[in-house]
């Protein structure tokens, strides 16, 4: 059985007080049944360091993009040629994390839209799937994707926290929808409602670690292995087995990002 954490940030985990090294994170993930993970970039300046961290790790993929919360006056003039070079590297299977965030960084909304539009255009030109971050901005995200992608854009709406109407539009555009540990939170009723609406064959699961660990690990530092609990929460909402959720979302991941999960998986190594 495959189980994929479709969105984590291995370079943002705590390697001083929680994990001795990245292999220890992988070992813990393997122990919880995780077979693959996608460690997503958020800053083009720091992407090479992330790539060096994961490039030799079996079963670990990565993605390159500029997160809206990381956009500043200093980096807003990023170069399409540099992003294209990153996207051409082995194991870089998507463009992201990109998108719009009007909740945490509303003051840069205009810059965000310009940067996001450019990234969508690069993704369309290279036929790379997109990993979309949308906070209070999902309609604008999808409007830009529709216009700049020229009907070619595909990918996933990550850590989905919007309503059914936005989920329907994303699905109609051909995007997958990914749910994080938030779907397990007792008060996240709108997310749970959206999760029930999205069919399993259009869904991914993720941790978005190190952020917002799922129940029963809520309050602890999140890590890729905890996607097992996210899968269990989704299974309960869909009245099905965790195994079915794991297998279906893994196949969706392979289809979305064009990878063969049979080629390699995570490998636990004794310290």
Provide structural commentary.
There is one protein chain. Helices cover 37% and strands 15% of the residues. α3 crosses α4 (109-126) and α8 (227-237) packs across α9 (242-257). Strands 1-2-3-4-5-6-7-8 form an 8-stranded parallel sheet. The protein has one domain: Metal-dependent hydrolases (TIM Barrel, Alpha-Beta Barrel), CATH 3.20.20. It has helices at residues 22-31, 47-54, 80-87, 109-126, 138-148, 164-172, 189-197, 227-237, 242-257; strands at 4-8, 36-40, 60-64, 92-101, 130-135, 155-157, 176-179, 203-205. The protein is built from 9 helices and 8 strands. The model has no long low-confidence stretch (mean pLDDT 97). By secondary structure, it is of the alpha/beta class.
Defining key terms:
single chain, 271 residues, alpha/beta, TIM Barrel, eight-stranded parallel β-sheet, globular
Outline: globular
Q: Please state the CA-atom Rg, rounded to the nearest Å.
A: 17 Å
Provide mean pLDDT, rounded.
Answer: 97
Helix content: 25-40%
**CATH class annotation:** Alpha Beta
Q: How many strand units?
A: 8
Q: At the third CATH level, what is the topology name? A: TIM Barrel
Q: Flag low-confidence runs.
A: none
Strand line-up of the largest beta sheet: 1-2-3-4-5-6-7-8
CATH architecture: Alpha-Beta Barrel
CATH homologous superfamily identity: Metal-dependent hydrolases
The biggest sheet amounts to: 8 strands, parallel
Main structural class: alpha/beta
